[in-house]
Write a structure and sequence with these properties.
Length: 494
């Protein structure tokens, strides 16, 4: 589980090997949600399925809200590792960890008090409320664990390690899948918790997987590990916190805008009746998996570009972009082709036999699924340009594509095209987004953006950062001594 130096080696192979665990993690999380929904829906009834759908909307919003902070942490750590500034990376990790933990505790406490009012505000059906409230309260209890796992995965990606987060995410998912039926039905000495057992399974799985990952990193003497003699690094650095907020909020806002646009689209679809909405819902199930390669490659490109920006390897940043776009077309295209050729069978998995919605779903899928090729290019380019700290232009491009093209296109052309205006709005807006992104990549000033100011006179740049120190020295291979001024000085093993 050693970190990968993304500033060296063949670009194409390095990017692919780095991206595959991210893709695997995305698939694992989606499968975990699907398995939990199957248990709840098939054995606890429609009220339970409605309850978990409403509660999960809250959970996904909370996790999406920290997406930007996680990406900002990934970029900061990646740039520091690229310029071989291990002390700087540790300073970012210490401040960011305190920020994340504090934020998660505050949100967790607020959620425990506001779970019922939030669900009522969302219009959760009355018969589902008794199930949704305890479920959501347990999710809020698990929130600090979920945030910590997400943060730790982000900084490891920034340092070039995607395998360690994948392995421990796999552990968490397997534990979750095993614990859900045991806690739902009260197998053996375990209590019968009903739907709340699904949330408790998530809490327990992360309560085991997170300490296991921390123990592993400490045991392996990971160079990013902050030992007991370096606890001063956990003090909040206001410059770092301001950067996390200033750069993270625009990136997190992108998730909010996408969610809002999807709500606007399904509101329009609902006007055409249950059959059309069911067809759209079935297509969305497939699209969840179609977009995964682009998202994984985009995240990998962001980490890889960040390290090379830190190292000043601009040719390699350009090579990362080209490789990412190429992989997007290859991997996304390989998914789209069978979904077009076999969509009669793949879409039927989500519908009753003989459903009238099937032909509607096939029709809209033929029109809209190609948009993910364009979406992937945008995601890759956005990941690269964000690696320098240019976070506002990708947000502006997203606003223009979704709210300047997709929603107005679908609204204004329905009198002429009917429901097809909604389906065509996906590829049209995705193409516009791709064109704007490519234009900004070539002619924009993203290369001049910065995350944190770097003073070359104060940053210690060791000649080499070992992926794994050869022997334990003091605590985790790091010795802290007092310099003549009385300040702690970090001595790294060579």
């Amino acid at each position: 589980m050693q970190r990968r130096d993304l500033t060296e080696g063949p670009i194409t192979r390095t990017l692919l090997v780095f991206a595959l665990p991210i893709l695997g993690g995305n698939v694992l999380q989606s499968l975990n949600g699907s398995v939990n929904a199957i248990w709840v829906g098939r054995f606890l009834g429609e009220e339970a399925l409605t309850a978990i759908a409403n509660a999960n909307n809250v959970m996904f919003f909370l996790l999406g809200a920290i997406f930007g902070f996680g990406m900002a942490s990934t970029i900061l750590v990646g740039q520091a590792m690229g310029r071989k500034d291990l002390p700087g990376a540790r300073e970012v990790i210490g401040s960011a960890a305190t920020f994340f933990l504090s934020l998660s505790v505050v949100l967790s406490a607020a959620g425990l008090l506001l779970a019922r009012p939030v669900l009522a505000w969302m219009g959760t059906p009355a018969d589902a409320m008794p199930l949704a409230v305890p479920y959501l309260r347990i999710i809020f209890l698990a929130l600090p664990l979920l945030y910590a796992f997400s943060f730790l995965s982000a900084i490891l990606r920034g340092a070039g390690d995607t395998r360690t987060p994948f392995v421990f995410l796999l552990l968490a998912v397997l534990l979750d899948i095993v614990l859900v039926p045991l806690l739902m039905f009260g197998v053996g000495p375990l209590p019968e918790m009903g739907m709340a057992g699904s949330a408790m399974a998530t809490l327990l799985a992360n309560a085991i997987a997170l300490p296991a990952m921390l123990t592993w990193l400490r045991h392996r003497r990971n160079p990013l590990w902050i030992g007991r003699h370096e606890r001063h690094l956990y003090r909040l650095d206001l410059v770092i916190v301001r950067t996390l907020v200033a750069k993270g909020v625009p990136m997190g806002a992108q998730m909010v805008l996408v969610s809002a646009a999807m709500i606007a689209m399904i509101t329009m679809v609902n006007r055409y009746g249950t059959e059309t909405t069911a067809a759209y819902g079935a297509a969305l199930q497939l699209w969840t998996y179609v977009q995964m390669p682009a998202m994984a490659i985009g995240a990998a490109c962001s980490s890889m570009a960040a390290q090379n920006v830190g190292a000043g390897n601009w040719d390699r940043v350009a090579g990362t972009t080209r490789a990412g776009v190429g992989f997007n077309f290859l991997m996304t295209g390989l998914l789209i082709a069978p979904l077009i050729l076999l969509d009669r069978y793949t879409l039927a998995m989500f519908m009753p036999e003989g459903s009238a919605s099937l032909e509607i779903a096939r029709h809209l899928n033929h029109i809209a699924v190609w948009s993910f090729l364009f979406f992937g290019v945008t995601f890759v380019i956005a990941g690269v340009v964000r690696s320098t700290g240019a976070v506002i232009p990708p947000l502006v491009i997203l606003v223009a594509a979704l709210w300047g093209v997709r929603v107005p296109f679908a609204n204004l052309l329905q009198p002429q095209l009917g429901v097809d205006a909604i389906w065509w709005s996906f590829p049209v807006s995705a193409f516009v987004s791709m064109v704007l992104s490519v234009g900004y990549y070539h002619w924009g000033r993203w290369r001049e953006a910065t995350m944190l100011p770097v003073d070359p006179d104060t940053v210690a740049i060791p000649s080499e950062i070992p992926a794994q120190p050869p022997a334990p020295v003091a605590d985790q291979g790091v010795r802290v001594e007092e310099d003549p001024a009385g300040e702690p000085a970090v001595t790294l093993p060579r």
